């Protein structure tokens, strides 16, 4: 039930809204039921796999 949630900075949101894939500054692994963040990473290799 844990899904990766990419976190973007303000400027990166513009690219996301335009449909352009950009690298988030971090990815949080959050529970879909209670929104609790179990883990987060800023490792580019991991983030590339989940975004
Ligand atoms: Zn939960």
Primary descriptors:
29% helix; alpha+beta; single chain; binds zinc ion; 51 residues
Would you give an account of this structure?
By secondary structure, this protein is an alpha+beta fold. The protein has one domain. Helix content is 29%, strand content 33%. A 3-stranded antiparallel beta sheet has the order 1-2-3, covered by helices on one side. Strand 2 and strand 3 form a beta hairpin. The longest helix has 8 residues. The chain is globular and about 30 Å long. The mean pLDDT is 93. It binds zinc ion. The site of zinc ion (ZN) has 4 residues, from loops. Zinc ion (ZN) binds next to loops.
**DSSP, total strands:** 3
- Structural class assignment: alpha+beta
Main sheet characteristics: 3 strands, antiparallel
- Low-pLDDT windows of residues: none
SSE layout and pairing:
Elements: E1 2-7, H1 10-17, E2 26-31, E3 37-41, H2 44-50
Antiparallel strand pairs: 1-2, 2-3
Bound molecules: zinc ion (ZN).
Summarize the structure.
By secondary structure, the protein is α+β, with helices and mostly antiparallel strands. 29% of the residues lie in helices and 33% in strands. Strands 1-2-3 form a 3-stranded antiparallel sheet, with helices on one face.
């Amino acid at each position: 039930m844990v899904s990766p949630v990419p976190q973007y900075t303000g400027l990166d949101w513009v690219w996301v809204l335009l449909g352009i894939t950009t690298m988030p500054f971090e990815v949080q692994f959050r529970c879909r039921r209670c929104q609790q963040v179990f883990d987060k990473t800023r490792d580019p290799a991991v983030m590339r796999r989940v975004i």
